[in-house]
Input
Amino acid sequence: MKFRCERDILADAFGAASRAATGRATNPTLSCLRLVLAGGSLRVTGTDGDLTIEAVVPVADGKDGVVLLPAKLASEVVRSLPSGAVTIDVGDDKVQISASRVNFSVPTGAEGDFPKWSGSVGGGVTIPAASLSEALKQVVRAASTDDARGVLTGVLITGVDTKLRLVATDSYRLAIRDIDAAVLPDGAKFVVPARALGELQRLLGNAETVSINITDNDATFEMGATRLVTRLLAGTFADYQRLIPPSPPNSLTISRDSVLESIRRVKLVARDPIGTPLRIRIASDGVTLRMVSQDSGEAHEQLDGDMSGNEIEMSFNNELLAAGIEACGAELVTIQTSEPGKLAVIRPKDDPSYTYLLMPLRS
Output
């Protein structure tokens, strides 16, 4: 097997596929990239058994064949080469990777059964990549990172009123985003691992459109010559709809950038900014953010905002509050509450497509 390819094209393909490979698996082939060359097209695949990323790139001077390469090493080597053409020449147990006057000789990957490709090819619903990328940025962050939490480490993808809805929660916060696209029938529900969607968000950066095809067992996302397929999570997702308050009586509209800057300032006094509550007092004369630390003192800042309803004071985890406000993306955000111990509802002003619910801390 031998071929030549531009460094940047090959580096992007190796980099994308290698993010699905793992070095912690009992099957050593899962730490490898599988390269298949046929008819001038190179297919690069990485997988951990649950997540698979595949990229197809054109090559020149090709001699067809199949080889496994150590994913991390191969990706780093190609990325380090000078720009221009890269030549890869596969021997019996070594692979020569060269460009200009630089040459690497690396071992072939571990022998064994590389998992077969799963997922769907073609037939999906195509939507703008930018819309999905923005939604993933807003929602994936709210999924649990604790593997013991089962389906809460995933994102619920469902069809609601001819729209695609993404929902994630870690039990302390809940993020909901609607995309104006009829990808799934109303009522259809699937849970996609948040890790896979995080990798998908990276791949969407340079794409114009993405095709989505979800079956009972897996989800496939196609972006041009790159595909990502992931197994779905089994289990019942939380009944998130019952958590959404119908119409909280207290509402604050405030500048997104102003409140984020204020949070960054007042938390400077906290040695443990995550564990130190951020106290927010909403009143007719403005909004006051306050943080108190026994070791480093106290900070408070007053901001302007438009309020309706009753004066209220609540405490939040400042990191989770800032994440929800930042995700809104709009110049103005609204924070709605009913009472200090109930969920706060955070949304971009005049945009119902995104909702972030946050549980306050006990004072």
